[in-house]
Here is the input.
Amino acid sequence: MTVQNNYRVVRCKNCGLVYVNPRPDTETLLKLYNDYHQRDGKDEYTWAKLMEKNFREVSALLDRIIPKSGRVLDIGCGYGHFMEIMRDYGWSLCGIEPSSKALSVARKKGLNVIETTIDDAAFPCNSFDAITAFYVLEHLTDPLTALKKIFMILRPGGVLIIRVPHTTPIVRFLSVFRIKNSLYDPPFHLYDYSPETITLLLKRACFSSIKVMPGSPTLPEKKIERIISTFSGNLSRLLFFITAGRLLLPGTSKTVIAEKNERDSN
Here is the structure.
């Protein structure tokens, strides 16, 4: 057990999933998330720079997987940066986000966005060719139920692409030297996913053809954080490449691709 920001972070003895216990109620979390995009002085442009490379990498990936323009849902769309990029590829777009402050900016860009969460969103079954969720799953109170809902609204043959943090190896390393930190970032982050736990979770939600890989590193505003992120991210990608996908560097964020196969939807 680890305590950060006065919250207990524990590990499931059965599956290894790391999570906050107990966690705040849903109403408290929604209030916190309304100002989430403005934390630590961040703004629209800070977030754009932070995620730019990853957004463009995923947009190009989707364009290869589903070459014809289709319909995409971006869960936790924030200011709408990823949606802007996908709009240039000719996709039909919808975004959902609980923060009214972030959505007001996205709406000014002419984007189709809805103020809601995936838990409360109402979409018909088989609505989207692709669904994305960048750094969202760690915030959800019930990620398995959310993934099952995502599976239902994804069309057969469609793909889900998510990005999740994997912080536990770094926290454990720092604990050896008794270095205090709040890298789990509770109560905003409720879970921390290893490649094994995120794969298990997706399988339980009926997804298949699951691939976990290092994506493009994020670019934080602070110089030292940017250097660390760039070095570790590029090292992770290099090791993944030279080992033919067998080695995933612990402690770096992962991009995960999962499919809803035709047979899985029956």
User: Anything to note?
Assistant: Residues 44-65 form the longest helix (22 residues). The radius of gyration is 18 Å. The longest strand covers residues 154-164. The domain at 43-165+194-265 is CATH 3.40.50.150 (Rossmann fold).
